[in-house]
Design a protein that fits this description.
160 residues, five-stranded mixed beta sheet
């Protein structure tokens, strides 16, 4: 059986082959599109976690600065009373709760840990060696294993 369209002759077999080719081409293009969308989503989520990590680093640094400020408020040679003396089985730990920090650091919880060690420089003159560790964790209640969970630790040693 032959069909004629504007002076063109097509057989039924030729028309079926064109339809199958078009369907195959659409399936291949939709598969490639799906893969491209998946890669784009993964790339964007990776970028988001990278930005959150930078903020977590800043929150940990804020905890260090807070701890350093507390130490520097003491007179020279006088230990910060909230700091535990080494060797301690459990160091002193305080938590700066979420929503205490401002701006983009607001969702982070920061724990500041302090251990102090002293030595006598001259008779009755003491110098304290502090190790302050700040750990910033979580975003909006995220727990380890979540995609948006981050944890950053920074440490500072100083003498006063």
């Amino acid at each position: 059986m032959k069909l004629t369209f504007h002076n063109m002759n097509f057989s039924i077999k030729e028309m079926g082959f064109s339809l199958l080719s078009a369907i195959f081409l659409l399936l291949v293009l939709s598969g490639v599109t799906a893969v491209m969308v998946t890669f784009t989503v993964l790339q964007n989520s990776g970028d988001a976690v990278e930005h959150i990590s930078i903020y977590a680093d800043d929150a940990a640094y804020a905890g260090l600065e807070w701890g350093r400020f507390q130490v520097m408020q003491q007179a020279a040679g006088v230990m910060w009373p909230a700091c535990s003396v080494a060797p301690a089985t459990a160091a002193w730990v305080t938590t700066i709760a979420p929503h205490t920090l401002a701006g983009v650091l607001d969702p982070f919880s920061v724990q500041v840990e302090c251990v102090a060690d002293s030595f006598e420089v001259t008779k009755n003159s003491w110098v304290w060696h502090y190790t302050i560790t700040s750990t910033a964790t979580g975003v909006a209640g995220a727990v380890p294993g979540d995609l948006n969970y981050v944890e950053r630790v920074q440490e500072l040693e100083l003498m006063r």
